[in-house]
Amino acid sequence: xxxxxxxxxxxxxxxxxxxxxxxxxxxxxxxxxxxxxxxxxxxxxxxxxxxxxxxxxxxxxxxxxxxxxxxxxxxxxxxxxxxxxxxxxxxxxxxxxxxxxxxxxxxxxxxxxxxxxxxxxxxxxxxxxxxxxxxxxxxxxxxxxxxxxxxxxxxxxxxxxxxxxxxxxxxxxxxxxxxxxxxxxxxxxxxxxxxxxxxxxxxxxxxxxxxxxxxxxxxxxxxxxxxxxxxxxxxxxxxxxxxxxxxxxxxxxxxxxxxxxxxxxxxxxxxxxxxxxxxxxxxxxxxxxxxxxxxxxxxxxxxxxxxxxxxxxxxxxxxxxxxxxxxxxxxxxxxxxxxxxxxxxxxxxxxxxxxxxxxx
Amino acid sequence: xxxxxxxxxxxxxxxxxxxxxxxxxxxxxxxxxxxxxxxxxxxxxxxxxxxxxxxxxxxxxxxxxxxxxxxxxxxxxxxxxxxxxxxxxxxxxxxxxxxxxxxxxxxxxxxxxxxxxxxxxxxxxxxxxxxxxxxxxxxxxxxxxxxxxxxxxxxxxxxxxxxxxxxxxxxxxxxxxxxxxxxxxxxxxxxxxxxxxxxxxxxxxxxxxxxxxxxxxxxxxxxxxxxxxxxxxxxxxxxxxxxxxxxxxxxxxxxxxxxxxxxxxxxxxxxxxxxxxxxxxxxxxxxxxxxxxxxxxxxxxxxxxxxxxxxxxxxxxxxxxxxxxxxxxxxxxxxxxxxxxxxxxxxxxxxxxxxxxxxxxxxx
Lengths: 360, 364
Prior knowledge:
Largest sheet of chain A: 7 strands, mixed
Number of domains of chain A: 2
Mean pLDDT of chain A: 91
Radius of gyration of chain A: 22 Å
Oligomer: heterodimer
Number of helices of chain B: 18
Strand content of chain A: 15-25%
Distance between the termini of chain B: 24 Å
Structural class of chain A: alpha/beta
CATH superfamily of the largest domain in chain B: Glycogen Phosphorylase B
CATH architecture of the largest domain in chain A: 3-Layer(aba) Sandwich
Number of domains of chain B: 2
Shape of chain B: globular
CATH architecture of the largest domain in chain B: 3-Layer(aba) Sandwich
Number of helices of chain A: 13
CATH topology of the largest domain in chain A: Rossmann fold
Shape of chain A: globular
CATH class of the largest domain in chain A: Alpha Beta
């Protein structure tokens, strides 16, 4: 997969904030840096993979510095035998390093705005991606001069899910007309104290992202499932709150964003707390997920959950709408590499469609 | 009997409509003058696909700003406007305003910072440069790049442009009267200082200099830093971390005239150019033209532009910056580098700027 060592570069807007010893620096210097959680987890994934292979790791703060000639030579000297470069890409720029095998790691498939930026970048500079060696956990495909290209995937996974803090379960209040008030009610101490125990049954677990909430068909499906959990005491449903691109990491903000997403589906929700539904502030413990059903959507940065969680699951529901969804399903199956029962979901097809031609 | 006819070229001079000429307008003015001086091309000029009389162009070049030309153009007050000759090659000194209009087109790529450092640009600027770039490259017969570094970066992103990408170097051309005017004025009372060109913005990397002020090599030096140029974004935030003594070490001029810039560079010990990325770096050539060596980041175009007239540092390393500063602060080292600076600046001249354009035209 990697040879001689791995160079990792960060997106420019985060590299600009760093105060490091130089353009090439060791991973230890990142430990005290302020980085968004998704970027830090992505960096850790690559660092862990390299270390597991016994390879040295260096970070390159600004790949654009090393354009050619003596600059490339200086970089090669400082990288000392490193052959591979993983560019952690937020969708705004992909900066390969000359002379190295470049791997793209678009680590923000869960952010709808980042996906839009990535699509735009590929549109304005498709050739930029032609020379890349592989894409880490990615499904990028693009067309240049009439030919389709899908760089091979490099599959990286955590053995154990990284956790910054233990996940909390919070009660679900859901008043679509008052997302902030609902969120405040969910995070209040009293609400947590009064929370009834989850009923028995196979847990349904949905790790959410902004990209998932932006899919209107899936949002509708989730809203209906949430309604069922609140009204009919169906099997327990836990929605893991999404990281927000523009957010501060505040839990109430995350809940409000989910309520806005689900509220926009038009589904009516009761004004009482749902006994079978919970918000989760982070990845659940493996013990809780044993035999659970986990829902996976192409807008999920699935690699942020370790194989411990996925292999503990009793069933995985895979959302597969359209050709991009099919590519994602293949990638996820390959990445998981284990026999966990999978069921394909097609939320778009689950709605009754009206064909306009038959109405007119 | 007459000699062979000169090749014709239409030059888009839209950048010269700007009120204040810095960056691309100055590049355009130098390109116009370099080609005219070569005497080897039959030049005509256009703005937005409209041919304008040469007299208006030369009046504007003499004035040194584009306000009158722009106002007259926009209000239809220029006599003799005509459709440009689509059979004549058309050269844009920057982004093309239209693609595929003439039989042969060329344009100039100054840098690819909107592609590799979009976070340092406004979204509108990124779109302005990147959205038309593929079509621009596809319809260009030749793509001129401001340096070998820019060429390398462009070809890395667009390998299909490799065969048509050529380097065009610009040059510094201080007006001759500046030297005389400077001698007739009192000396600047700023003490010993290093000039710094650039605004406070991430790409210009002035933050490195600010951080380095607490390093013993800079703290114990008597040199001040005079930052020449418009104050950019986040200036107050960048300066908030400085103590009063450090504040006194830095002077910001804000926007200054070319003559004021000349005086400030001429009186400086050396130039500090800490940018993380540059497509060319004309301020370095302007300083070297005045015999000033450059304390430069080891990045992108600087090694080819500054050559042996600089002392280099890693643009992210305070320690390397401080060590390089210590070296270049030594008057003996400056004396050693000064003639190299003049020699290096001489490498960039009008004839060299015109050469790749003439080569293109003659090969057609």
